[in-house]
Every structure is written in C-alpha cells, then in structure tokens.
Design goal:
Blueprint lengths: L2 H16 L12 H13 L13 H26 L11 H18 L12 H18 L6 E6 L4 E5 L5 E6 L1 H8 L9 E3 L2 H9 L5
Parallel strand pairs: 1-3
Antiparallel strand pairs: 1-2, 3-4
Helix pairs in contact: 1-3, 1-4, 2-3, 5-6
Length: 210
C-alpha cells in the first residue's frame, strides 16, 4: 500500500470516529466540509479551480455544499475511502505524487484539531519524501513569507526560502512538521523557531502554503 492510500484510509477511519461536526485546522470547516472538499478535488474537476483561484471560489463553495446535500457525511467518507477518484485513479503514479502530501496534511488537520493529540513518528522514507518536496517547493510554499526562512531538518538538510533582504527565522524540526509549518499550520507544527521576536511573530501570522 502506498503512503497516499494509507493516509486516505486512516483519515477515513478518523472521519468515521469523530463524526461530521468535529473541528479541523481548516478555518471555518468541520470534518463534513473537509470530506466534501476531498471528494470535490478528485471527482469534480470543473469546480476544483476555486480551491486556488479566488474568482472561482464561489462556484467551488456551491458545488461543495451540493456534494454534502447529495451524499451526506457517511457517503462522502465512503467516496474518500474508495478513492483515488477521477484522474488520480486513472494516471499511474499520480495519486502517490500528489495525494501523499494532501492526505497527510488533512489527516493532521483533523488529528490536531482534537483536544488530545501527539505527533506521529513517520517512516524514514516518508520523511525523505516530504523533505524532497519541501526543497523543491519552498519557493512556492514560502512565497508569502514576509521574512527569510531557513528550514533545518532534524537528521540533516537545510533549505532557504521566504523574503530576501529581510530578517531570517530558523525553523527546525522533522520533515513532516516542517511541511505542516510551510502549509500554514504554523501554530500546530512541532518545530523550534529562533530569530528576532518581531520576525518570528510575522512568520507565525503569514499565510504560508499554496
């Protein structure tokens, strides 16, 4: 089983345990909303543009609500569980290439919004995968950082991104925690930060991610 499929299965199990009204780290979204989002991005490509493009967001939101009304929470969870759907299930390797990060992040969005949680110890090869993605994508993930960012991976590895000619903040942690940090989950990522207090505060409030 690929890591993308494993994260999908574990997230589906967690959805079923916590129910449709549980909080997530996605601002304003319950688990019902998140399940609908995951189904939409795989099975409604006509509406997926609004995930990243503000002018299309209204249509995307309407389709997401229609999916909730049509399938209900349990139906959406089963669609998530039975995936990958759409093009992700048709193109060999696409699910692993794209959904490994997507489902890991959203799995943690549910886990870390609950009252009690602890970070998971990830397999070494999954940590390696996340670090490679961070190194390749740091320019995109950190493009809205108002300060320079130096990522230090525990176990080895350094990557630099964020604003040039600005104070730098050092961010240290395992690759999975650095990934969450760079995708806008700064407050919940288990990392160590060092730098000027004002620069750290600006980085913590920055809208990081894609």
């Amino acid at each position: 089983m690929t890591y993308a499929r494993a994260e999908r299965a574990e997230l589906s199990d967690l959805f079923a345990r916590v129910g449709p009204d549980a909080p997530t780290l996605c601002e304003g979204w319950t688990t019902f909303d998140l399940a609908a989002h995951l189904v939409l991005r795989e099975r409604r490509p006509d509406a997926a543009g609004g995930i990243a493009l503000a002018p299309l967001a209204g249509y995307t939101a309407r389709v997401q609500e229609s999916l909730k009304a049509k399938h209900g929470f349990d139906g959406l969870v089963e669609l998530v569980r039975s995936g990958p759907g759409g093009v992700y299930g048709l193109v060999p390797g696409l699910d692993a290439a794209v959904n490994t990060m997507e489902f890991f992040i959203h799995h943690e969005d549910v886990r870390r919004a609950q009252r009690v949680w602890e970070p998971r110890e990830l397999p070494a090869d999954l940590e390696d995968t996340f670090w490679k993605r961070l190194r390749m994508g740091r320019g995109l993930f950190l493009r809205r950082s108002p300060v320079g960012v130096v990522l230090h991976r525990i176990g080895g590895g350094v990557a630099v991104g964020g604003a040039e000619n600005a104070p730098r903040v050092e961010v240290t942690g395992p690759a999975g925690e650095l990934l969450l940090f760079c995708f806008g989950r700064q407050a919940q990522a288990r990392v160590d930060l060092s730098g000027d207090d004002a620069a750290v505060a600006r980085l913590m409030d920055a809208p990081l991610g894609v």
